Fold these 3 entries.
Entry 1:
Amino acid sequence: MHYLALDIETCPLPVDGYSAQQQARLQREMQFLRQRNPDVEEDDLRLQAASLHPLLSWIVCISVQRAVDDPLQPNEPHSYLAQTPDDEREMLRRFWEDIQRFVERSNKICWITFNGKRFDVPFLLARTLHHGLLPVPCGLLDSYPYSHYPHCDLFNLFSGINLGLADLCALLHIENPKAHGDGGQVQQLLEVEGIDGVRRYCEADVKATLLCFARLLPLLPESCQPPAK
């Protein structure tokens, strides 16, 4: 069994380049968020709204960490980076090309995300299609919330509870990957620390996701389990 944990980070496209459609979408997203957080500053609200929608943002980083049979003994994460929007298409092409090669030589893959079925994967799919590319059939696009293979979304194990990745790490006594910020600060991180700062942040998330999965694996169905020795 190959376990592949995945996480993405996004950054708003330049607002001065937004089309009328993008401007309208931004206003709707801001209105929706304002109802939930009426005291948030306008600039922070705009940044958050743009970061969460694939029409308004690009993917800065995709990080993947792999483990074979034992998720407690993973390889080091590998990241795909797009320092600017112009770099995104090539980054996505390389990502799917690598996934295609991996699928061809791996007979069983379990993808692991945290809230990936609602955010990371739909966002990844939308940006892939935007660039005229096609995703590779590999199980990652499985979005059924109550299945845990071929895509195990840890967020769905706790449906009905407002539980973030940092919360789950605290429950399981795992180091908090959000100690130095969250996904809403990626633009600032990119400006201050550059693309390598974003990579480090994304890889911290993906490491924590895989470690949480390893702790929860005994609770998961047989389809997620490694082969018997």
Note: The mean pLDDT is 92.
Entry 2:
Amino acid sequence: MPHLILDYSANMEERTDIAALCDCIRLAAIETGVFPKAGIRVRALKADHVSIADGNLENGYIDISVRLREGRDQETREKATQHIFAAAETFLKSAMNTYPIALSMEMRNIDTSLSPKSNSIRNFMKED
């Protein structure tokens, strides 16, 4: 765990490399030292139909949602949130200086009693 989900307006695909942003966020999550590498999942979901702010079709957004298992204290989660958000902001700086873009992020805990897991990825991971 965690799952990092990018929800973004379709016009963002013209403004930035979404796949590279996913990789940037994955690496930032690893850099925090908070999450096990084998548990990190990053995915991006495009919203084809949006209505943002004043309705200007140039408006775009990326919302990063982080879902993780319980057990990390508030300070640890805050530091991880700040690190991942800063990486996304840096990655998107040029696009945000050129286009109207809203960037947001939320980290929240998952109730472990309601979220069973099974994972064989570690069995196949290559050593660094």
Note: The CA atoms of residues 14 and 121 lie 33 Å apart.
Entry 3:
Amino acid sequence: MEEMLNLISTYGVSAIIVGLFLWDYISNKKKLAENQEMIKSTLKTVEETTTTISNCLAEMQQTNLNTAKSLELLQKQMESTDKKVDKLLEERRN
């Protein structure tokens, strides 16, 4: 019994420090694993969002091209109409 108390008094503080170190190490390891899973999940979400944004930008580009073409056709039609109106006005003056 006396030897047991001697061992505890001699190595007790060291054992407590080692125990705390191991507990802290294991605890941090679990947190690290959880954080890595969260990071993987976040990266997957970011990747999906990036893909969605990329698709939206491609659709916007096509829409802008269509709008530009429509405006170009409208401008040509207006120029044609202006020429016809100018021609009619000129004929009426004569």
Note: The chain has one domain: 1-94.
